[in-house]
Design goal:
The complex is a heterodimer. By secondary structure, chain A is an alpha/beta fold. Chain A has 19 helices and 21 strands. Chain B is mostly helical. Chain B contains 16 helices and two strands. Classes of the chains: A alpha/beta, B mainly alpha. At the A-B interface, strand 2, helix 11, helix 12, strand 17 and helix 15 of A face helix 10 and helix 11 of B.
Chain lengths: 513, 362
């Protein structure tokens, strides 16, 4: 491109305690260009965006805006320089109106004395908000409360807010993750508009097919470094994935065949109103049973019912031919079920506590005598698992919050392996962790299966499901819509299609479950 | 945080001594030493008033009941809760004990008009039981009625105080048997220094609380619940049981403090321990236990209580009128919490106080 870039980032680095988040990153955005910023979770995209938005300060490097070097010291200042960011999590005040949110801290004021006492000119604010909402095509009243809006419309309000700053650079962090198909189309239309006006749009997404529809150029980060940048015409999906993960996918999954034994878990007619209906299946020793389905299909809910985290309305849970009482996670642990929950930070770990304390939490009762804990044994076991799972931590006393996502996930696994379960349920076990840790977790799953554990793996990543599962159970709208056995998984492309059709269709009569 | 490289492993500190030094306690311990040094110099140096053994043991005596209640409060605040009722519960426990043994009230009078000997242990147990019961009810309100701890214990503060006023009809209960008052007034000679019995009891309770918090499964659960309630539940911890236990212990220890206070003063006044909840909370937060939950220590609380005790006596000795004392305490509390929140923000830890007012806890 011949023109000068609007935004130029040069040699930017940023470290957090124990983590080098960005190393010497360069990239540019030109007027009228849509740049897709890609990378795995933890590649440094969010850190980079937060630096550009003024939320973090960089450790070193330079940022140029319209050819002039700028210091971005606060979100407010970045906005006034013309950089707006639309975060994945919303930054709207739910109890305020749409107009008030768009003009937070910049409300138009009444003339004269009104200016002095900061009397807000509501009519002007609402009219201006209406104009911006029209531009983004949101059918929302400026006086509506944010609380009352569906997620997709909140997203549009965010975009309207970004437009109100007349920004030259607009950053969108996974803007489509909450949007449906039509809304995504509308967003793309808006992006094309912004582009036509000569603004630069930086677009972060995990949906790679969207990249090829809307982006002019891709910039790929991995482990905090720039891997490469290429015009969209020069790459295809495989090439982009290769850049993102740094190795081919086949090396990552380490599935070894395990001896499939007796039924260890037998679930009959599990139900909870509004979440799960009539879920039945069996799990055998040594088996990895994949749970596929769309988000909200009832997979996590099923796992929580099995684990006693939620109360079931109906259904039987048999373990090794017996039917233990399971009314709480405590009961489930005693019965030999463990759950690695989908959200490490809020459900799997106490981030403030040490690696040691997190590991021993589910395993306190068997190791306390007269109330006192057998510290030496616990410590030895905890250290053993740190070594066995290759958890990279300076010591057992390190607070878990300072570990990387992959190592945090391994701590969650360690704590459950210490309790020696018969059935291990993994809910999105590799979400948000780096490639190296991912492949270690796959290897560990294989190894556990070989040792005779029954494993349920809930995953929204089809390649992972296909590569690791012995059988795949598919859910849709709270029901089991199909189970694929081993033979059906041989042809991966066909299996993928079958899974997708089960996942998008409500159970029909006669489906084997 | 991102998932990238982790700094290479380094060996864990081995010795207990290094662990103590590494801990948060060292900072406030230095503050305590600094205050002691200041008041020593301000009152005539090493041979002056401040460092006299009687003065030091007096300071310790004066914060003994606060510290005992503060050990229980440490559990509460680590669990991301708050217990505002401890002052009233202290008074109620003291009153309950006094009712059983005061010469003009006791149901256990002997023929010669004195109170029978075995009524004294019974009175102590009754005081402890009343405290534990109040705490237990707090626990039930927080877990089953799902009230925010701030509200539940604020209610208990008023209820307990009302019961104290009602039962005593506003009059102090006196005429307690000398053998009961001995508990508050006896000295135990250790290495030539006479330590007041309440101080010795405080230290023993402190050691038990420290072991409980750091060496038992219950202690681990308190930290876990305060750090992340949801993750604790999903780790098989009964959050309900843990919280009820925590508030019961807080009530029990407040009761113990109340009984000791009554024994020391020789009277159960209806206004006894009024406002003590703030002294108790102050000792805990000055001692470095985080108001955001999940972090804290008994040793820190002991030092925190000592800081507040040294401040009280020290200001008095250098001639500051007692009227000004609350202001000085207020400054210390604000400084302690400001520093705590500031450090937490820098370390990327959660901050804020919303959990005290929220139904679900953290």
């Amino acid at each position: 491109m011949q023109t000068e870039p609007i935004l130029r980032v040069q040699g930017v680095s940023k470290a957090f305690p124990g983590v080098q988040a960005l190393t010497d990153v360069d990239f540019e955005a030109y007027p009228g260009e849509v740049v897709a910023l890609l990378g795995e979770n933890g590649a440094g995209k969010s850190t980079l965006m937060k630096i550009l938005a003024g939320a973090y300060t960089r450790d070193s490097g330079h940022i140029y805006l319209g050819g002039e070097e700028v210091e971005l010291t606060s979100p407010h200042q970045a906005q006034s320089l013309g950089i707006s960011i639309i975060y994945q999590e919303f930054n709207l005040v739910p109890t305020q109106t749409v107009a008030a949110n768009i003009f937070t801290a910049r409300e138009p004021l009444q003339p004269g004395v009104g200016r002095v006492v900061k009397l807000v000119d509501r009519r002007r604010m609402e009219a201006e908000a209406q104009r911006l909402l029209d531009i983004v095509g949101a059918h929302v009243s400026p006086t509506a409360l944010i609380r009352s809006l569906p997620v997709a419309e909140r997203q549009l309000v965010e975009i309207a807010k970004a437009l109100s700053f007349d920004s030259r650079v607009i950053i969108m962090d996974e803007p489509t993750s909450a949007l449906g198909k039509d809304e995504t189309e509308k967003l793309f239309e808006i992006i094309r508009n912004l582009k036509a006006q000569g603004r630069a749009v930086i677009f972060i997404t995990h949906r790679l097919n969207e990249v090829f529809r809307i982006a002019d150029r891709v910039v790929v980060l991995r482990d905090g470094r720039l891997v490469g940048t290429a015009p969209i015409g020069a790459v295809d999906i495989d090439k982009v994935i290769g850049m993102m993960v740094g190795r081919s996918l086949s090396q990552m999954y380490q599935k070894e065949p395990a001896q499939i034994g007796d039924v260890v878990l037998d679930v009959k007619g599990l139900a909870r109103a509004g979440a799960v209906e009539d879920v039945s299946f069996q799990l055998r020793r040594g088996e990895i049973l994949g749970f596929a389905g769309l988000v909200g299909a009832g997979r996590t809910e099923t796992a929580r019912l099995l684990f006693g985290a939620d109360a079931r309305d109906a259904g039987e849970i048999w373990i090794d031919g017996r039917q233990p009482e399971i009314h709480s996670p405590e009961d489930a642990i005693r019965a030999g079920i463990s759950l690695v929950p989908e959200d490490r930070g809020s459900q799997g770990l106490v981030l403030l506590l040490s690696v040691f304390k997190n590991e021993v939490l589910p395993n306190l009762s068997p190791h306390s005598r007269l109330g006192l804990l057998d510290g030496a044994t616990l410590e030895r076991q905890a250290a053993e698992y740190v070594q066995r799972l290759n958890i990279r931590t300076p010591s057992l006393e390190q607070k878990v919050m300072y570990l990387s996502g992959g190592n945090q996930q391994k701590v969650v696994l360690a704590k459950w392996l210490m309790s020696n379960p018969k059935v291990l349920i993994l809910d999105e076990p590799t979400r948000g962790i780096d490639v190296g840790a991912k492949s270690e977790i796959y290897a560990l799953m294989s190894q556990l299966a070989r040792s005779g554990m029954g494993i349920i793996m809930i995953s929204s990543e089809l390649p992972e499901i296909l590569a690791m599962s012995d059988r795949v159970l598919v859910m849709c709208e709270g029901r089991v819509t199909g189970i694929l056995n081993r033979d059906e998984l041989q042809n991966q492309e066909a299996a993928q299609e079958i899974i997708m059709s089960y996942a998008t269709r409500h159970a029909v009569e006669g489906v084997p479950a | 945080m991102s998932d990238i490289t982790v700094s290479p492993p380094r060996p864990a500190p081995r010795s207990t001594w290094r662990r103590v030094l590494r801990g948060q306690e060292i900072g406030i311990f230095l503050v305590l030493l600094g205050m002691v040094a200041f008041f020593t110099l301000a009152t005539g140096g090493a041979s002056g008033t401040f460092l006299k053994p009687t003065n030091l043991t007096n300071i310790m005596l004066n914060f003994s009941w606060t510290a005992i209640a503060a050990f229980g409060m440490t559990f509460v605040i680590i669990s991301a809760g708050i217990d505002l009722s401890v002052g009233s519960v202290m008074a109620l426990a003291g009153l309950a004990a006094a009712f059983l043994i005061a010469r003009d009230k006791s149901p256990f009078l002997t023929a010669d008009g004195t109170v029978s000997e075995w009524a004294i242990p019974l009175a102590i147990l009754a005081g402890l039981a009343v405290g534990a019961l109040a705490g237990f009810i707090n626990g039930l309100l927080i877990t089953f009625a799902k009230l925010p701890p701030f509200i539940a214990t604020l209610g208990m503060l008023q209820i307990a105080r009302g019961i104290v006023y009602g039962l005593s009809q506003g009059w102090p209960i006196q005429n307690l048997p000398p053998n009961f008052m001995t508990i508050g007034r006896q000295n135990i000679p250790v290495a030539g220094v006479n330590f007041p019995l309440p101080t010795v009891i405080m230290l023993v309770v402190g050691i038990i609380a420290w072991i409980f918090l750091t060496r038992t499964a219950w202690g681990y659960r308190i930290f876990a619940v305060g750090g992340n309630e949801q993750a604790s539940r999903l780790s098989g911890i009964s959050v309900t049981r843990t919280k009820i236990m925590i508030y019961t212990i807080s009530g029990l220890l407040a009761g113990a403090g109340g009984v000791l206070l009554t024994a020391r003063l020789g009277v159960a006044a209806p206004t006894a321990a009024q406002g003590y909840e703030l002294d108790v909370i102050a000792a805990v937060v000055v001692g470095g236990t985080s108001t955001s939950g999940g972090e804290g220590s008994i040793l820190g609380t002991l030092i925190g209580a000592a800081i507040m005790g040294v401040l009280r006596t020290g200001l008095n000795l250098i001639g500051v009128e007692a009227y000004w004392l609350p202001s000085a305490q207020g400054i210390i509390i604000i400084a302690a919490i400001t520093l705590d929140q500031w450090f937490r923000r820098r370390q990327g830890k959660p901050t804020g106080f919303a959990h005290w007012f929220s139904r679900g806890g953290k």
